[in-house]
Amino acid sequence: MTANSLEAAGSSPCVRLDQVSKLFGSFAALRQVSVDLEPGRCYVLVGENGAGKSTLLRILAGLLRPSLGKVIMFGDYEPHDVRERIGFMSHAPMLYDELTGKENLEYFAKLYPGCKCLSPAEVLRQVGLDPDLPRTLSQYSQGMRQRTSLARVLLPIPELLLLDEPFSNMDVESVQQMVALLAGFRHSSRTIVLTTHQRELAAPIADWVLTLKAGRVASFTPGRPTL
Q1: Residue 10 has pLDDT above 50, yes or no
Q2: How far apart are CA 61 and CA 160, in angstroms?
Q3: How many CA atoms lie within 13 A of 15 on its CB side?
Q4: Whole-prediction pTM value?
Q5: What is the pLDDT, as a whole number, of residue 11?
Q6: What pLDDT, on the 0 to 100 scale, is given for residue 181?
Q7: How far is residue 169 from each of residues 146, 174, 175, 197, measured CA to CA in Å?
Q8: Are 43 and 1 in contact, with CB atoms under 8 Å apart?
Q9: DSSP for the chain?
Q10: Nearest residue to 181 via CA among 226, 225, 143, 127
Q11: Exposed (0-12), middle (13-18) or buried (19+): which is 124, by Cβ within 10 Å?
Q12: pLDDT in tens, 155-178
C-alpha cells in the first residue's frame, strides 16, 4: 500500500519509509525502500539471508540510521526520538540464564525510570507464563524463552512491536502459542513488524507480506489472516 492510497483512505500511517537506503561501505543493505505501515496491522518481512530484513528492523528500532531517505513515525518523529514507544525483540534473547523469568523482568523494568510499565507478574501472565515459576532461564524450553523475551519487550507497553525471527528454534506447539499471542495484539492498536524465514508460520496473522530481495522491495502483498 502506498502513501497516496493511505491518504485517500483517510488513514495516517504509523510508520512511513521514504526512499530509505542503508550503506555499509560500498555494500547496500537496503535500496530505496518506500513503504507505509498502518496502525494495528501485522507486517511480515520475508526474503533470503542478506535480503535486508534485520537491517530494516534495526532502522525502525532506531538502532541504525538510514544512509539516505527518511523514516517518520507516529506522524512527525524519527525512530530514535520515540524509542520508548517501540518494542524490539532481537534474534538474540537478551536474557540472563541464571535468573528466573520474573527476576529477569524485574531487572529490565528498572531500565524504564519514570515510564508507565506493566508489572513483571502481569506481563508474564500476558504471555502465558507463571510468574512464580522457580526455574531459572537455563531450565526453560525454547518456547518459554521466546515468550519471556516477548514479555521483556512488552514491559513498557509499546505501540510498535518489532520482532526478529520470533519463531526461531521453536516446536510446532510453541509456535502456535506465540501466533495466538500476537493475534491478540493484532486486534489492538499495536502495529507488529516481524521477520521470518518461514512465511507459513506467520500466515495466520499476516495482514501484509513484504518481500525483500537484495535490499529492495520485491513485493508488498495482502496476507491471509485466519485468526
Answers
A1: no
A2: 9
A3: 29
A4: 0.89
A5: 61
A6: 85
A7: 9, 10, 9, 11
A8: no
A9: --HHHHHHHT---SEEEEEEEEEETTEEEEEEEEEEE-TT-EEEEE-STTSSHHHHHHHHTTSS--SEEEEEETTTB-GGG-GGGEEEE-SS----TTSBHHHHHHHHHTTSTTS----HHHHHHHTT--TT---BGGGS-HHHHHHHHHHHHHTT--SEEEEESTTTT--HHHHHHHHHHHHHHHTTT-EEEEE-S-HHHHGGG-SEEEEEETTEEEEEEE-----
A10: 127
A11: buried
A12: 999 999 999 999 887 888 888 888
Asked if pLDDT for residue 1 goes beyond 50, the answer is no
**What's the confidence (pLDDT) of residue 6?**
39
CATH number listed for the domain at residues 3-222? 3.40.50.300
Q: Which three cell numbers stand for residue 40?
A: 494495528
> What residue ranges do the domains of the chain occupy?
3-222
Higher-confidence position of 11 and 32: 32
